[in-house]
Design a protein that fits this description.
The complex is a heterodimer of chains A (703) and B (204).
Chain A: H1 4-9, E1 11-17, H2 21-32, E2 37-40, E3 52-53, H3 55-66, H4 82-89, E4 90-97, E5 105-107, H5 109-114, H6 120-135, H7 142-156, E6 169-171, H8 172-183, E7 190-191, E8 197-198, H9 202-210, E9 218-220, E10 223-228, E11 233-236, H10 241-246, H11 252-266, H12 272-275, H13 283-291, H14 295-305, H15 315-328, E12 337-340, H16 344-358, E13 362-364, E14 369-375, E15 380-386, E16 391-400, H17 406-414, E17 421-429, E18 440-444, E19 465-470, E20 482-490, H18 497-506, H19 537-545, H20 562-582, H21 601-607, E21 627-636, E22 658-661, H22 671-684
Parallel strand pairs in A: 1-2, 1-16, 2-13, 10-18, 16-22
Antiparallel strand pairs in A: 3-7, 4-21, 5-6, 8-12, 9-12, 10-11, 14-15, 15-16, 17-20, 17-21, 18-19, 19-20
Helix pairs in contact in A: 2-16, 2-22, 6-7, 7-8, 11-20, 13-15
Chain B: E1 8-14, H1 21-30, E2 45-52, E3 55-62, H2 75-78, E4 83-89, H3 93-97, H4 99-110, E5 120-125, H5 138-147, E6 153-155, H6 164-186
Parallel strand pairs in B: 1-3, 1-4, 4-5, 5-6
Antiparallel strand pairs in B: 2-3
The chains are: A alpha+beta (703), B alpha/beta (204).
Chain lengths: 703, 204
């Protein structure tokens, strides 16, 4: 029978610790290849650093990782200190509950002072009583009490935990806001490391070929916007061929150049002579010099189309990204990106774990681990001892850093030369930052923002800041709320996530009591229904499509895009003909695009879905979203680069049968992690097929 | 119209390890049974076309794939369920006593819109075993089902194919009822034509 006893007597092929995205692919691939897999996680949820939480669990998580873990001064070198290593991974954790200058302000400083000597718990109780006595909520719900209790605990430990520093006053408005968040807690699926999938990228292809995609549902990303420093505007980018045609902001000449570049990029591998000289040069340089693209087009190509998160992309990297992007367009609609519902990485992790379980993988969440047993002489990992003292053995150990022993972690640490981090922000707002567009990605190119306006020396964003807006349609929040995920790579532990990301947030939302952010909507009491002046049929169609009722997409619903392709070809031809007869054309934003000059009917119809492409966001016609809640955190992604630093070989090397997986990177997609998982599998099971198709359920032998 | 659209019902089966969840599915869908207990391997979900009141619906029955053994079923497993089947072994008192927590777990994880009316079905399996081994009486099981809002209760033997068909008929019927209600709740009447295939984000 399947109980704990049999686990101790089994020697598994592999024990996998942690259910982060990469681990789960490895788990699925190993189990699928017939290996016996025991998969453990200390957390009570799947996904590890890619976990997804409801509101209540997000707050709990933040508090946990923000609280320093007290440990034994000199821990046993084989000890696993999971909580400590997790807490070490996250820094600058900060919760903000915004106060829109409404409601009655309750000053908490006197109660905090009066209870200075008391324990944090007693202090919290005193503050809670004080709030209750001051605002005497009428008919308080369970969530009202929970909100007050939470606020009291934040105020009680003002300089510890996840809350904004010096939380010394609270307004009744804030209490209501928090109460509302608790009431809708399960409508949220906050993603700790949000990402997207290319519709025709390696991960999506793997999900389809292996059959694992059947567990998932998706939405298409609608648009990509890029912040342009020169104009101080966040502008929608032309991100598909159709967009290019209808764009009114691009001149015919620009369109022609862009189209020429895109046509080259689809087939760049066969045209090495064009880009060979630029292979290791920055991608931007190649695009500029070889294709002479103007600034506007350059931004579209380098950021909206070719950017996967890497600011140091070489021409080879950039072309690869552009190609995946172009291939992905049209597979499921007029966008290159898919976004899973209910949170991204966590859903993928669960899908892979399910496959692993279907093929015999044993799953134990919330399983405390004590220490590793290593045969030091043979440099082999032997087993892991859990919190019950049970010894779990396997031929191979696969884990992420948080599961290393004290010794192993010290070894890894000594090999890290360059520190790297990802600054994250999860922000809840009351309306879309992009008008009718609800599922949208935005990039703030490196150097485009001043992080410390008014101060000297000026500090600019050293890395591109990515923003992903999710809506109720992705099942990540209630339908009247929006989540903005903001993140960027960072090279230093010093700057807080808040310092590094706020400049971008200011361009998209109104942050109460931040005068540099967008202006508050006229009446912030009553959110005005989106009142764009006379919605055209175009915007209407787009709005409709983004609604919750838009049919969800499974990977097997691929559309027949042949007709679209034909139409694009026709339009291309037309475009080139027109461009030829009218060149040279000065850059005139009002140049009518070919779509308005009588193209074939099906084409016109097709274009109706793509909103006039280069359009301003927040040009004043729609009120700015108001920030309600945010969580900032900075995650360590530091990792050794070979060659290892001299001197560190004195430390005990990692066991030969241990495979250590990298932390999730900052990129927009999962491709690096997917590639890593494939490589690990191929090392462990040489010659075996990586996640072959799963047979139809009926084909399984019944027993 | 809506009644003619293809209906897919998701049914999930919960309960302690070894109560016969996979066997019940297999008996119902494949008419097969094996005496050999093997902790579930290779079972994902089974599908069966079921006629209900002149309609043919597709029932997709999801196995726990063994992830229930150490309470490690992820929230994704529960999503979109139209009916939840709670199974226990009538010869194992503990498997009956944990039904309550399985039901709670389902309601928390799946968080259906209308938890009071969500369709559950309870199955007491392995009635083919010797009567002397029986630990949970029919009366006790029925009393519990009644206290939870009259959950339909069936006593079955996956091995002998006793009552399995009947239990799943009820499961299918209640799942369909739920599915229809949910769809009415969710469907914005203005978008009644959104079932047409060309509404997948491309207007071609």
């Amino acid at each position: 029978m399947a109980d704990m006893d049999s686990l101790e007597t089994t020697v598994f092929d592999a024990i996998i610790l942690g259910t982060g995205f990469t681990q789960t692919i490895v788990a699925a691939a190993l189990a699928r290849a017939g290996k016996t897999v025991l998969h453990l996680d200390e957390n009570d949820y799947y996904g590890g650093e890619s976990g997804a939480f409801g509101f209540r669990d997000l707050v709990k998580w933040a508090d946990k990782v923000a609280t320093p873990v007290s440990t034994v001064a000199k821990a046993d070198s084989d000890k696993i200190e999971f909580d400590k290593l997790v807490a070490k991974t996250y820094n600058h954790v900060e919760i903000q509950l915004y106060n829109a200058n409404q409601g009655t302000i309750i000053d908490l400083a006197p109660v905090i002072d009066a209870n200075k000597g008391a324990s944090a718990e007693d202090r919290a109780k005193a503050i809670e009583d004080y709030i209750n006595a001051t605002c005497t909520p009428t008919a308080p719900s369970k969530e009202t009490n929970e909100a007050i209790e939470t606020i009291a605990s934040w105020a009680a430990s003002s300089n510890q935990g996840a809350t904004a520093k010096n939380f010394t006053s609270v307004s009744t408005h804030q209490i209501h806001a928090l109460e509302e968040l608790y009431k809708t807690t399960r409508k949220y699926n906050f993603d700790l490391s949000p990402k997207l999938l290319y519709s025709r990228g390696p991960l999506t292809n793997l999900l389809i070929s292996s059959g694992i995609g059947k567990y998932l549902e998706f939405k298409l990303l609608e648009r990509t916007a890029v912040y342009e420093a020169l104009t101080d505007k966040v502008e929608m980018m032309p991100t598909s061929k159709e967009d290019v045609f209808v764009s009114k902001a691009l001149s015919l000449k620009e369109k022609r150049l862009l189209m020429k570049f895109l046509q080259f990029a689809v087939d760049y591998e066969n045209q090495q002579s064009i880009w060979e000289d630029y292979r290791d040069a920055p991608f931007t340089q190649f695009v500029q010099s070889a294709y002479g693209l103007t600034d506007k087009v350059l931004t579209a190509v380098v950021y909206a189309i070719g950017f996967d998160g890497n600011d140091e992309a070489t021409t080879a990297d950039g072309l690869k990204s552009v190609k995946v992007y172009l291939q992905s367009l049209g597979r499921y609609g007029n966008s290159a990106y898919l976004c899973p519902l209910y949170g991204v990485g966590s859903e993928l992790a669960q899908a892979f774990c399910r496959v692993s379980a279907v093929y015999g993988g044993i799953y134990m969440l919330q399983h405390g681990l004590d220490k590793h047993v290593v045969d030091k002489a043979a440099n082999k990992w032997q087993s892991v001892v859990d919190h019950t003292g049970q010894t779990l053995q396997a031929g191979q150990l696969i884990c992420s850093r948080e599961y290393l022993s004290v010794d192993m972690d010290a070894y890894l640490e000594a090999r890290i030369l360059n520190r790297s981090y990802v600054s994250h922000c999860i922000l809840v707002t009351d309306r879309s930052a992009f008008g009718e567009t609800t599922l949208c990605k935005t990039l703030f190119p490196m150097g485009s923002l001043v992080l410390n306006p008014g101060e000297t020396p000026e500090k600019r964003n050293e890395h591109t800041i990515s923003v992903l807006q999710m809506c109720g349609g992705t099942m990540s929040c209630p339908s009247d709320r929006y989540i903005l995920y903001i993140w960027a790579e960072s090279d230093t532990a010093d700057g807080s996530a808040k310092e590094e990301l706020t400049a971008a947030i200011r361009k998209l939302v109104h942050i109460p009591s931040d005068s540099r952010s967008l202006k508050a909507p006229a009446s912030s009491e009553e959110p005005v229904p989106e009142s764009t002046p006379a919605p055209t049929s175009e915007t209407k169609a787009l709005g409709d499509a983004s609604n919750e009722d838009q049919p969800r997409m499974s990977l097997d619903q691929e559309m027949d895009m042949e007709q679209v392709r034909q139409e694009i070809l026709k339009a291309e031809k037309k475009l080139f003909e027109e461009a030829d007869t009218t060149t040279p054309i000065p850059s005139r934003p009002s140049t009518p695009g070919p779509s308005s000059s009588g193209s074939a009917k099906p084409l016109t119809k097709m274009f109706q879905k793509s909103k006039s492409s280069v359009s301003l966001v927040n040009n004043g016609s729609t009120p700015a979203p108001v920030a309600l809640f945010s969580l900032f955190y900075k995650r360590t992604t530091s990792w050794p680069r070979v060659p290892y630093p001299i001197g560190s070989e004195k430390l005990t090397p990692l066991p030969s049968n241990l495979t250590l997986l990298k932390p999730m990177n900052h990129s927009l997609d999962f491709e690096a992690a997917t590639e890593e998982a494939r490589a690990v599998f191929e090392t462990l099971c040489p010659g075996e097929e990586f996640l072959p198709p799963t047979p139809e359920p009926e084909d399984h032998a019944a027993y | 119209m809506a009644s003619q659209r293809k209906v897919l019902l998701k049914v999930i089966i919960l309960g302690e390890s070894g109560v016969g969840k996979t066997s019940l599915m297999n008996q119902y869908v494949n008419k097969k049974f094996s005496n050999q207990y093997k902790a579930t391997i290779g079972a994902d979900f089974l599908t069966k076309e079921v006629p209900i009141d002149d309609r043919l619906v597709t029932m997709q029955i999801w196995d726990t794939a063994g992830q229930e053994r150490f309470q490690s079923l992820g929230v994704a497993f529960y999503r979109g369920a139209d009916c939840c089947v709670l199974v226990f072994d009538v010869n194992n008192a503990k498997s009956f006593e944990t039904l309550e927590s399985w039901r709670d777990e389902f309601l928390i994880q799946a968080s259906p819109n209308n938890p009071e009316n969500f369709p559950f079905v309870v199955i007491g399996n392995k009635i083919d075993m010797d009567e002397s081994k029986r630990m949970v009486s029919q009366k006790r099981a029925m009393a519990w089902c009644q206290s939870k809002g009259n959950i339909p209760y069936f006593e079955t033997s996956a091995k002998e194919a006793i009552n399995v068909e009947q239990a799943f008929q009820t499961i299918a019927k209640n799942a369909l009822q739920h599915e229809v209600n949910v769809k009415i709740d969710f469907h914005d009447p203005i978008k009644i034509d959104s079932d047409t295939p060309d509404n997948n984000g491309c207007a071609c």
